[in-house]
Amino acid sequence: MTQRAAVGARLVETAVAAVARVPVPLLRARTRGGKAAALARQTAMYLAHVGFGFSLTRVGICFGRDRTTVRHACERIEDRRDDPALEFGLDALQAALQAAMLRLDAGPGRAGR
C-alpha cells in the first residue's frame, strides 16, 4: 500500500467517523458492527474510491476488506445518493477531503501557493 493511499484512507475514515459520530475503532473492526458503524465504513470506502480514485483493491487493503466488499459498499452508497440531503453531505465531505489531501500533497510550507 502506498503511503498516500494509507494517509487518504485514514483521513477519510477519521472524517466520516466524526460526521457519523461513530468511533474510529468501530470502522476498523473485523466484524460488521452495528448499522451505524457499517454505514459509516461503507461511506468511508466509497469516498476513498470515488473521491481519491483509489482502486477497489487499494481501498480494500486500506480498510482490511476484500475488493468485492468495497464494490458492494460503493453500490450501497451510490444507491442512496437519490436523497438530496445525503447527496449534499457526501459532496461537501468529498470536497473537504480532497482539499485536505491537496494540502498534504503540497507538503509543509507549500500549501496554498
Automatic annotation (TrEMBL):
It holds the Pfam family Bac_DnaA_C. GO terms for molecular function: ATP binding; sequence-specific DNA binding. Residues 8-77 form the Chromosomal replication initiator DnaA C-terminal domain. One of its GO terms (biological process) is regulation of DNA replication. Coiled coil: none annotated. InterPro entries: DnaA_C, Trp_repressor/repl_initiator. This is Chromosomal replication initiator DnaA C-terminal domain-containing protein.
